[in-house]
From TrEMBL:
Protein species of origin: Streptomyces rochei (Streptomyces parvullus)
One GO molecular-function entry: heme binding
Segments for region (Disordered): 203-225
Key words, A-Z: Membrane, Transmembrane, Transmembrane helix
Gene3D superfamilies reported in the protein's UniProt record: 2.60.40.650, Oxidoreductase, molybdopterin-binding domain
GO BP annotation list: sulfur compound metabolic process
Domain of life of the native organism: Bacteria
Pfam families: Oxidored_molyb (PF00174)
Protein name, per record: Molybdopterin-dependent oxidoreductase
Lineage: Bacteria, Bacillati, Actinomycetota, Actinomycetes, Kitasatosporales
Length: 531
């Protein structure tokens, strides 16, 4: 078949041109992301455009939206965010492709604009230390823009007018071939990039594997035998690492090489500034403590609370060696700002850290080095304070300053400067909308008021009187405490409500409050139907 016959037979129409343009746009977008992913593997996984833009979006998310996302997607919120970004990019890619059919050069240049956005996001992330972080976005965009230009050049000539450039005729086979090659190359590059990014941080993995935690000088007392109630459905007293909740802003979990890790302690009223290595920490006296950690974003009855056996060094001892004095002893700094390798900042009252409680730089969690998700190699913990004001993961810097002089990450986003954990209780069993049989039904759960301790838990059926629940043995006042209540259940719908009283005598408040600014308040209720 001659070229003329071919052209005459295909009768290229506007629809073909536009849909092929849209397809070209999509392919260009895929190619751009794939190349970016590949380059990010060489530069830094966090420098990839989707992760960088996602991180920037997280930093700018209004509190209400963040709360909504955590409520609806839980720990999957980050996945949902990244899928959302990809969906938006796909729409823009389709539109750019259609636009490029008429304006080939401008369309291709449009892809580059997205590269600039990605590069700006990547280089302005708080953990970005080098302009090379722009490379994934820039090179990806150049690849995508180039591909779009090339593919558009293979589309059918406009139906009327406009002279054809040589070699520009509509050749379906050549377009399909180019498109297929582009798609396959993108898929390959993307897959390799993903795999490399996922396998990254080998030094960190090796450094973790090589850690042999020395026995702590100060052991945690054994968990009392009665701390765990024998009722099915109640959370285990010690939360296994794999089940421990995770809340952070990191789209890519930092992989820190413990042998290269350093912690600097400095700031106002630090006459003896210090920089410590991981081995420096391990050579110090280690303490082992059970501490229950809670997130300020935990709704009443929510899952963002966990209890683990931690090993670490006493933070107050280290600060004292550096010459730090708490405000009550005339020290100039009332805020300790912890910084992580990914740019998180967490501000803690110096007074709380140095008042005798077991504030620590933790290196171990439930008998192993910290998992990467939970802050390897070192994180901070302060019993009694919500995580966002105390529990900096992947910590690398401690600065002594004042609350007047500096607002940490979440404080800039409307959360309270100081946030002791509120007295709370949760019904673990029966589950909401359960259908237990009439007769003896065990109601049980957990209550917490870290660093004050739980003294009483009461259960109420419907609008009946408050009845004392049986308290399980207390481990320490820094841990949660389990409770149970033997209910003689009668047929029909019932509402079970729980409330706790802490050791200061304060009764958990009925008043329902939102998580913002300093933690949710109110009673947890569960509705069941007894059959
Ligand atoms: N570097 C860093 N540390 C962080 C956070 C974070 O986003 N980044 N989140 C804090 C919050 S809000 C909580 S509740 C705890 C959660 O610790 P976990 O993920 O180990 O349960 O970590 C704290 N430390
Ligand atoms: Mo949190």
């Amino acid at each position: 078949m001659s070229d003329e016959e071919n052209a005459a037979r295909t009768k290229p129409g506007t629809i073909t041109r536009l849909s092929s343009g849209a397809l070209s746009g999509l392919l260009a977008g895929c190619a751009a992301l794939a190349v970016a992913e590949l380059v990010a593997a060489a530069v830094r996984p966090q420098a990839g455009p989707v992760v960088a833009v996602g991180g920037a979006a997280i930093d700018r998310t209004p509190v209400a939206v963040k709360d909504w996302a955590i409520r609806n997607f839980g720990t999957d919120d980050k996945l949902v965010l990244q899928l959302g970004i990809l969906a938006v990019l796909a729409l823009f890619a389709l539109a750019l492709g259609v636009f490029a059919v008429r304006h080939r050069r401008t369309g291709a240049a449009g892809v580059v604009v997205f590269g600039v956005i990605g590069a700006a996001a990547a280089t302005s992330r708080p953990d970005s230390t080098s302009v090379t972080d722009a490379l994934p976005s820039v090179l990806g965009a150049l690849a995508g823009g180039g591909l779009l230009y090339l593919l558009i050049g293979r589309l059918p000539a406009p139906p009327r007018g406009a002279a054809r450039e040589p070699g520009q005729g509509w050749d379906r086979r050549r377009f399909v071939l180019a498109a297929t090659v582009a798609a396959a190359a993108s898929a390959g590059a993307g897959a390799v990039g993903r795999a490399l990014n996922g396998a990254g941080g080998q030094e960190a993995v090796t450094s973790r594997r090589n850690i042999d935690l020395p026995p702590p000088a100060s052991r945690a007392p054994a968990v009392p035998r009665g701390a765990q109630v024998r009722v099915a459905g109640v959370s285990p007293f010690i939360t296994p690492n794999a089940d421990f909740y995770r809340v952070d802003t990191a789209l890519v979990v930092p992989k820190v090489d413990a042998t290269a890790w350093r912690l600097r302690v400095h700031g106002d009223g630090v006459p003896r500034e210090r920089t410590l290595t991981f081995d420096d920490l391990l050579r110090r006296e280690l303490i082992e403590r059970d501490i229950t950690l809670t997130c300020v974003s935990n709704e009443v009855g929510g899952p963002y609370v966990g209890n683990a056996r931690w090993i670490g060094v006493r933070l107050a001892d280290l600060l004292e060696e550096c010459g730090v004095r708490p405000p009550s002893q005339g020290g100039p700094a009332d805020q300790l700002v912890a910084r992580s390798v990914d740019g998180m900042t967490i501000g803690t009252p110096v007074e709380d850290v140095m008042d005798g409680r077991d504030a620590m730089l933790a290196v171990g969690m439930n008998g192993e080095p910290l998992p990467f998700d939970h802050g390897f190699p070192v994180r901070m913990l302060v019993p009694g304070l919500y995580g966002y004001v105390s529990a900096c993961k992947w910590i690398e810097d401690i600065e002594l300053t004042t609350f007047d002089a500096y607002d940490a990450y979440w404080v800039k986003r409307d959360w309270a400067r100081e946030a002791p954990i509120k007295t709370q209780s949760r019904i673990d069993t029966p589950k909401p909308f359960a259908r237990p049989k009439a007769g003896a039904v065990m109601v049980a759960g957990v209550a917490w008021a870290q660093h004050r301790g739980i003294d009483k838990v009461e259960v109420r059926v419907d609008d009946g009187p408050w009845q004392a629940a049986a308290l399980a043995a207390e481990d320490t006042r820094d841990t949660w405490r389990q409770w149970s209540y033997a209910w003689q259940a009668t047929e029909g719908g019932h509402t079970l409500t729980v409330r706790a009283t802490d050791r200061t005598g304060e009764v958990q408040t009925e008043k329902r409050t939102r998580t913002v600014p300093d933690g949710a308040g109110g009673w947890h209720s569960v509705v069941v139907t007894v059959e």
